Amino acid sequence: MTDNCIFAGFPLDPADHMRGNEKWLSEKLDAKSSRFLLYARGRPLMDISEDLKPAFKTVDDIKAVAANDLTNGDNNWVFLGINGDVAIFAVAIAGKLDLAGHEKFIDLRSVALQLGADGFSAVPSLLGRGKILLEWNGRRHFCSCCGHKTQAERGGYLRKCRNEACKAEHFPRTDPVVIMFVVSGDKCLLGRSKGWPEGNYSALAGFVEPGETIEEAVRREVLEEAGVKIGRVSYVKSQPWPFPSSLMIGVQAEALTTKISLDTDELEDADWFDKTCLREVFESGGSATFKIPPKIALARYLLDAWLQEE
Q: Which residues pair with 92 in a beta bridge?
């Protein structure tokens, strides 16, 4: 099994040491060798001619879009990293763009589902980081400390207040979420939220509250949602989740109790599933009563890892 999951495995050198070099960034923004990922309302521009792939653009392509001026110092572009000598940027398109017949803006979830169908791909990680940074910059035009306008710096990884009396620095936010694969012997606890399609079950999950450890968040969330008490908590895997900007922290949690007391405001159903039965379901590709979680979900990674254990 791969060590990576969808939205993990960033394929570029982030080149953090160059983000503060405004001269270098300016040169790269105008370089013929640089490549640009375009986004419209959070959707990346994809080449759908053959295999699905990002539709990278050149600086001349970008300049042809009248509403996009990469030198305005605002928030419509971010620096993602370098691939050899090639600098990669993400750009939020505000103006009209004439697309080729083989190009289309596609929802990132759909892109990830398609690219991850046959195995791991690092492309969703690249596209996800661009989406996260562009949307964060787009929501941070004003300083939360004094209300004055902010400006982007360090290639979009920092916004600074323009008010000389304030000069507050604001950094991209990541919200930690625990996703708990709860086990008791050869059974695992899975649940389904209201509105989910019939047969869709997944690991329980919830946001980490201020001042909590990961272990405390896991125990609180499982007890609140399913009434099950948790003992040992073991870290397994993390996953960036660009909807809008979370870090999924995947753990395996050992149940101390098995009686389910459902919080119906949080879950529609929860149940214990036998490992042998789930292996048979996976081998058959799913059933009417249990649909296998998609590969883009960290819950799928946790479930796969558990089913492969002897």
A: 39
Instruction: Tell me the chain's radius of gyration from C-alpha atoms.
Output: 22
Inside any domain, residue 221: yes
Phi-psi region of 279 (alpha: psi -120 to 50; beta: other; left: phi over 0): alpha
- Looking up tokens 């759909």 gives 110
**Considering the domain boundaries, does residue 155 fall inside one?**
no
> How many angstroms separate the CA atoms of 197 and 200, rounded?
6
Could you list the residue range(s) of the whole structural domain that residue 255 is in?
175-307
Structure confidence by residue, pLDDT tens digits, 188-205 = 999 999 999 999 999 999
Write down the pLDDT at residue 69.
Answer: 54
Statement: the pTM of the whole predicted model exceeds 0.90 = yes
Q: Is 242 exposed, middle or buried, given 0-12, 13-18 or 19+ CB atoms closer than 10 A?
A: buried
CB–CB of 163/236 below 8 Å? no
Of 135, 155, 188, the one marking the end of a domain is 135
Q: What is the 3-state secondary structure (H, E, C) of 109-157?
A: HHHHHHHCCCCCCCHHHHHHHHHHHHHHHHCCCECCCCCCEEEEEHHHC
pLDDT single digits (tens) 51-76: 899 999 999 888 776 445 555 545 58
The one-letter code for the residue type at 33 is S
Give the DSSP H/E element, type plus range, for residue 225. Answer: helix 214-226
8: tokens are: 């993990």
Looking at residue 210, the DSSP 8-state letter turns out to be T
Is 136 exposed, middle or buried, given 0-12, 13-18 or 19+ CB atoms closer than 10 A? buried
Domain of 44: which CATH number? 3.90.79
- What number is the average pLDDT over the span 216-233? 98
Composition of the chain by helix, strand, coil, percent to 5: 25, 30, 45
Q: Which residues contact 293 (CB under 8 A, 6 or more apart)?
A: 200, 201, 202, 299, 300, 303
Separation of alpha carbons 142 and 148, rounded Å: 5
